[in-house]
Structure formats: structure tokens, C-alpha cells
Amino acid sequence: MKKELSLNEAVELVDSPDLSASMERVTIKDFINMTKPGILFSNLITTFGGFWIAANAGGSTNWLMLLYTLVGTALVMAAGCVLNNYLDRDLDLLMARTKGRALPTGKVSPQTVLWYGISLGIAGMIVLALISPLASFLGLIGMVVYVGIYTAWLKRTSVWCTVFGAISGAVPPVIGYVGGDVNHSMGLGALVLFGILFLWQPPHFWALGIRRAEDYRAAGFPMLPVVKGNHTTKISMMRYVVPLVPVSMLLYPLGLTSMFYMISAAILGLIWVYLVVKGFKAKDEIQWAKQVFLYSVNYLTILFFILIIDASFFV
Q: Which pTM was predicted?
């Protein structure tokens, strides 16, 4: 029978030099993967969306500001993901989904990853400072919440980790809005964008948590499905997907979008509500969770593409 690693054994193993792993050549791809490109891409879509509606409301687009906004936000988010890799290196070794990463296997040293993450974070905040101190401050807040509060603390101790982690995940479109705003300030539109991303994240990650519950349980992550079970998780998902529908529609009464966006947002949101409701009678909960997770990814992408198109042609 294969022996499972304890957390202390995982810490010792991941921080000890592995001759076979160290003989493998470290590639650029390894460092790119540490930044979690999929997360960067989806968040940059929301950053661009925030910039675009603010710039459209102001009547002009400063392309240099757009470049600073996207590059700075990408660097700060990449820093958070890399530092997340650094702090989670022991737990990643216990999960089937993550144990093959460069850091847990010993291919890259923890010290290298730590300085890589710090360097990315400093560079990102410098670039965002070229927009405004507010943009740089927002980047700092997002990184501190994600790395310090979510990863280092709550992810290991509380079911509230997902909710607090959603705060940092909701910052990118706000930075985008500040970058696109004529005065580089936050308006009500920025707060609505924050609300959309904040409400989107818990049900998205809880669906993944239901799919990967055994993996999270093995690593000791107190995800809601692991601690409270699937039924309680479904109820909690409803608490977020239901208010997401009216919140996502608020951009229309603010004059930032047209009726086309508002109707589209309502339809997309109600479909998600319907899918979550179906989960209470699902016979195959893993398959249901997979369906909800995939829809949540498509929901966010489609919503922001519609937002960008709407602001470009219909407002």
C-alpha cells in the first residue's frame, strides 16, 4: 500500500534538494506556468473590460494608459500566483493535481520562486504607479489579500478562505476602470465591477471544490464542500449567484451600457441560477459540478466580451 505523506514530511521533502529533479533543466515554461496563465488571461479580460467602459464613458481612449494598466495588472497578478506557489509548495505535493509542478518536485528552489514573485510584484506596482497612486495601491491591496490573508492564513484554516480570496480576485476590473477613467479615479461603475467579480468567484471555486473534494481533503484544505458537505455548499452558491443577476445589470442604469448588455447579463445570470438549482436534485454531483464550473468560466468570458462590444458600439 502506498504511504501518504504527512504535511511535515511534505515540507521537508519539498525544501530538500532532489538530485534527480535538480538534474532536469529548468525552462522558461516552468516560470510561465508558475504565474498561472489561465488565471492571468481571464483576469486581464475583466481588467480590459473595466478600462474600456470607463474610457468610453470619458469619450476617449488613452492607449498608453491601457498598456500600463494591462502590463501592471498582469505583473501584480503573476506575483500573487507565484507567491501562492511558494507558500503552498508543501500542500501542492499532497495533491494529485499540483504535485507535478516545478516547485513541489524540486526542479526550482523555493528561494528562486520567492524572489521571482517579489520581483514581479515590485515591477507591477511601479508600472501601475505610472497610471496613478490609486492604481498602484489597488494592486498592492489585491496582492496582500491574496498572498497574506487568503494563501498564508485562511486557505489553511477556514471555510471563509474562498470568500476573502474573492476580494483580491475582484480587484483587476477596478484597476482597469481607474486606468481608463479620465481622472484615474473610482466611480460607481468600478464598485459594480467589483461586485460582479466578488459574487462570481465563490460559486465558481465551490463547484471546483465539489469536483476535487478528495484532493482538497488529502491536502488538508478546508474548502466548504470538504468541511460542510455538498448540500450546504449548494445553498451557499445560491447566496452568490442570485444577487449576481441584479448586480451585473446595474451598469445599465449607471449609463455605462445599453439595454443589450443588461438583457444579456440577466439571461446569463439566470441560466447560472437554474444550473445551481438543478444541483439539489442531481444524481451525479461530480458531473453536475463540472457543468457548473465550465459554465461559470464561460459566463465571465461571455459577459465581459458583451460588455466590451456593448461599450464600443451601442452606448
A: 0.91
